[in-house]
Write a structure and sequence with these properties.
The chain is an alpha/beta fold and 295 residues long. It has a single domain, classed as 3-Layer(aba) Sandwich (Rossmann fold). The chain has a seven-stranded parallel β-sheet, with helices on both faces. The protein has a two-stranded parallel ribbon with strand order 6-13. A two-stranded parallel ribbon has the order 8-10. The longest helix is centred in the first third of the chain and has 22 residues. The two termini are 32 Å apart.
Amino acid sequence: MKYVLAGGTGALGRSLSADLVARGHDVVVVTRRPAGGGPYRMVGWDGDLAAELSGSVLINLAGELVDRPPTPANVELLTRSRVEPTRALAKAAAGGPPAVWLQLSTLAIYGEGGEHVLTERSPPADGPPQMAGVANAWEAAAQGAPCGRQAILRTAVVFDRDTPALDRLTGLVRWGLGGRVGSGRQWVSWLHAADFLAIVRRAAEDPALSGVIHATSPQPVRNAEMMSAFRRVLRRPAAPPTPEPMVRLGARVLRTDPALALTGRRCVPARLTETGFQFQHPGLNEALTDLLRPS
């Protein structure tokens, strides 16, 4: 099969490209700075996108990293970096529709989920703007785009080796800051990278999968449980909690968004479970053991 990855030079894109190439697929990455010499072709956004998209599996990952302060300028950047490429792809698809359009999105579209168990049938939230606002705009830009079938992968935080999410958490634990964050009761929806890759393959190949799909482990955990799992796997002692004011202060120092740690969502992959999808790493402790063991 031919796969076109839009914005495929980030961590998830690189993992996807390597996985698909290893399975014998033709991979094309659409990027602002195409280069040659790799195991797949790279093309610019000003190239003949219609010809590349025609009959392909399009995976749209385009967008700036969310790990930044939620200023109005940054919210506008996060939105623009997703909406404009998506609209460009939709325009190109009119001249060469992909067979499958896999639209990446985020479970942050539900904002603060509290104790509710969220499935694909749950309504998106109205805010905060850097989460639900950006995600709603991203998904709306892909709505109605010409294609044979479209699936929207609302994705949890993906844990993989040498990526910002896992590196930041392991760093905090190793520095002795591995206690619960805030109340510690906020739910964390997470996913092992191997399961993310398998979900993408399943969504590309299964004609029954269209519309919203949750790409997340079937076992969400509370923040306190997650931090305990990191300490256990890294063999670190108990650590004091980080109160919410300290989280907000630390976010300023690290130039990140405190809501990434303080809000939570208890999301489950109802549609994947209904189709019999088997997760390789459904539990957090085992997933972290796999990812953090010495290579």
